[in-house]
């Protein structure tokens, strides 16, 4: 039994804090994976409950959910990585270097002709800029591109490793979710209504983000894949690649459409390169992504989640952008989760303040 005196309580809390810090240190390599697995559980729990209601078997229901997520995310991503590796191994970097040099000379020639019609001050600035560009060693740029590709391959290995642990943790969240939830409720020093309110709000926001991200990813991938199909490209490969690339912070689909446009330029198809670039920037990036994303979020909330969110759809949209900027790929779920949790806690704090008054 714990000594209930003041000294005994302080001693116990001190030991508890030290052990808690030791636990954090011990499991620090897996904390992010655990957090992502928990957030994925929050966003997909309704599907799990629906499957488990029919099967009435937690093991099979959990296994089916893991399999579905693997088929949805991991297998297409693995397909893209393998195909990109094969494409990279077949690139003739000597010809690529010659092409880059040729483009540089052509652009310089066109710009120099246009300088005759510009004021001297502007012309001098442009000439200085061209000199700096011409000083760039194309060979070193190609080598750096190869180094980036190698680094990306290593990152892909780490991503696969993270995905493995996330799926393992996610399985246990599905399997032990109910009992784990009851145990956490007993530990949190809030009444059950307040805890349930926080849980419902965060899980609803994460669900909206998860499903809207999938819809947006599929939509953008479909729009790009079906478009490049008419230019002779593998529609499925480039569609899946563009869909996943759209989740990458800042650059997004540029990782896909820019190499395609440059390849068309390499083949001498200037008009194709311009059309691919404009279509990707205007139709996909501007209209389908930024324009439709808030609408998709609102639709998912009202039709699929059917929960009364107390957070505006535009705030969720900006939380996704902030999460991607701050945390990278997994910021898609971390940003909205942190925002939803903060707002829910503020609402509870407000009720505390009223109780005190």
Automatic annotation (TrEMBL):
It comes from the Bacteria. The keyword Electron transport does not apply. It is found in: Membrane. Coiled coil: none annotated. It is a multi-pass membrane protein. InterPro entries: AI-2E-like. Keywords: Membrane, Transmembrane, Transmembrane helix. The chain crosses the membrane at residues 7-24, 30-51, 63-82, 163-185, 205-230, 236-258, 270-288, 314-346. Belongs to the autoinducer-2 exporter (AI-2E) (TC 2.A.86) family. This is AI-2E family transporter. It comes from Helicobacter ibis.
């Amino acid at each position: 039994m714990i000594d209930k005196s003041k000294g005994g309580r302080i001693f116990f809390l001190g030991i508890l804090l030290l052990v808690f810090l030791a636990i954090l240190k011990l499991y620090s390599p897996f904390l992010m994976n655990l957090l992502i697995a928990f957030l994925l559980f929050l966003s997909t729990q309704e599907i799990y409950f629906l499957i488990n209601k029919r099967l009435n078997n937690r093991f099979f229901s959990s296994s089916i959910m893991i399999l579905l997520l693997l088929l949805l995310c991991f297998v297409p991503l693995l397909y893209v990585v393998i195909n990109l590796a094969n494409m990279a191994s077949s690139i003739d970097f000597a010809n690529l270097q010659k092409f880059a040099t040729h483009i540089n000379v052509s652009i310089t020639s066109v710009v120099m002709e246009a300088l005759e019609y510009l004021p001297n001050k502007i012309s001098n600035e442009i000439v200085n800029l061209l000199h700096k560009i011409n000083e760039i060693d194309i060979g070193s740029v190609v080598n750096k591109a190869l180094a980036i590709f190698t680094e990306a391959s290593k990152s892909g290995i780490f991503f696969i490793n993270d995905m493995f642990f996330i799926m393992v943790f996610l399985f246990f969240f599905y399997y032990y979710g109910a009992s784990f939830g009851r145990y956490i409720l007993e530990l949190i020093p809030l009444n059950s209504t307040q805890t349930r309110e926080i849980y419902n709000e965060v899980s609803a926001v994460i669900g909206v983000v998860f499903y809207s991200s999938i819809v947006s990813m599929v939509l953008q991938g479909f729009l790009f894949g079906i478009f490049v199909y008419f230019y002779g490209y593998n529609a499925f490969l480039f569609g899946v690649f563009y869909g996943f690339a759209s989740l990458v912070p800042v650059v997004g689909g540029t990782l896909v459409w820019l190499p395609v446009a440059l390849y068309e330029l390499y083949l001498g198809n200037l008009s194709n390169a311009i059309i691919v670039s404009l279509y990707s920037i205007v139709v996909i990036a501007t209209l389908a992504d930024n324009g439709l994303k808030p609408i998709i979020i609102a639709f998912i909330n009202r039709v699929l989640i059917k929960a009364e969110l107390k957070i505006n759809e535009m705030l969720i949209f900006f939380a996704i952008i902030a999460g991607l900027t701050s945390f990278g790929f997994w910021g898609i779920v971390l940003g909205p989760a942190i925002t939803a949790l903060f707002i829910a806690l503020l609402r509870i704090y407000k009720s505390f303040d009223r109780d005190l008054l």
